[in-house]
Task: structure prediction
Amino acid sequence: MNVVTRDLAIARQDQFGRRIAARLDAATLELPHDIGERLRAARSQALAHRKSAALQVAPAVQVSSTGQATLGGDERPGWWHRVASALPLIVLLAGLVTIHVVQNEHRARELADVDAALLTDDLPPAAYADPGFVQFLKSNP
Result:
């Protein structure tokens, strides 16, 4: 329901209420005093309830603390709004996956370079695990 339709419905309700109040006022002149007082109290309670209900209606334009004006209302957001809201999360997840893949490739490339250096070196790979390797390095200039 848009704002104009809602305002028109409220105006019609108010007009209907005024007509009923006028007829009740005309009829209260014929009633005894105690019944008239009870009706007056009930009417004031109804008006107080109506005023509190009117205050709870959301305004058509809402202003945030930063001064940004947004359209308010009771309408649920459409699917474009949902997609636009989820888009930053999707971009963040895609970025994290990309960083993970790039780091894994970089790590694999570094390990491959180390393995290639070990295999092409003059020293056999079994020598690196030998406890006398440190003495070999110290004795070999």
Observations:
- The longest strand covers residues 61-63.
- Residues 11 and 101 are 63 Å apart (CA to CA).
- The chain has two domains: 1-75, 78-141.
- DSSP finds five helices and two strands in the chain.
